[in-house]
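The following block was generated as part of the benchmark described in Methods. Ligand: zinc ion.
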Amino acid sequence: MIQPSVPLVWRGTGKRLSVAMLCCAGVVLLDVFCGFPPSASGSDGQYSGKQGQIVVIKVPADEMSAQVQGKFLGRTVKFFPETRPGEPKGFVGLLGVDMQDKPGTHELAVQITDGEHDRSISYHVRVLKEKFHVEHLKLPKDKVDLDEQSLARWKGEQEQVKEALASDSEKKLWQPSFVEPVNGRRTGIFGSVRIMNGQARNPHNGEDIGAPLGTDVAATNDGVVRLTVDHIFSGKGVFVDHGLGFYSMYFHLSEVLVKEGDLVRAGQIVGKVGATGRATGPHLHWGVKLNGARVNPYALLDLPFKAETQSATPSPVGESVSAAGAPAP
Ligand SMILES: [Zn+2]
């Protein structure tokens, strides 16, 4: 069995979280969000995250009615207001680091728009290389090499998805605490380089969770069903829009139990595990797209957003946190 990687989600650097704020006056160091679980932060006080991970970015701001948006590697990151008792006011954005983002330091340029008081902040985000697995798969030839007709179908399906996901819900729809859609064995690891019938293919952009045919598949969080499909590769699938450019996907279902436009809640059953599309056996392919970046869905379970009723044990400061749900090695 291939052991999954245990990627870092964020690294605590202590109770103080400093961010460098670039404004016309130059670089100012600010202490923000004391007591907030620390996000990925590089040694220079700025942010870092591995390929396929989620970096929680906090922007201090008093103007809670402001529009806050960031640009990172050409992608848009939408922020939402997040105020916790006793903490400075501010906005939070979930920055998805795509599995194939180039390692190195990139700029996240944040624009705070509030009528006359527009300003910008620049952060450095260090993308760290993830060591992805290599998987060798043997599949029937017709499932790998598409004939002309199937290729045309696949292209049309790609367009359909692109169109459906082109306009994000402008409101954050998700709530604290994310749900693992199926409790099962992870059989296809996120980011794996896939060699199909001896040929290198696109890396695996989700996690495969093996479970018996007909097992319930739950939505990871609240959202609106943006698209349901029956596609050549993903089989029967559901795309849930959680708002602000954050989508979760559930593929290879035997049955889809929701329809486009439905509002779903965290834990609501959206379908049943199946083996439709390109699948060698019953499993759920769980995928997440965050501002256009393909991220490890298990990173959601480690985000510092937990329901208040939960007695979550905070991670010791300074220790790395692994992607929850990763089976013990
Ligand atoms: Zn998969």
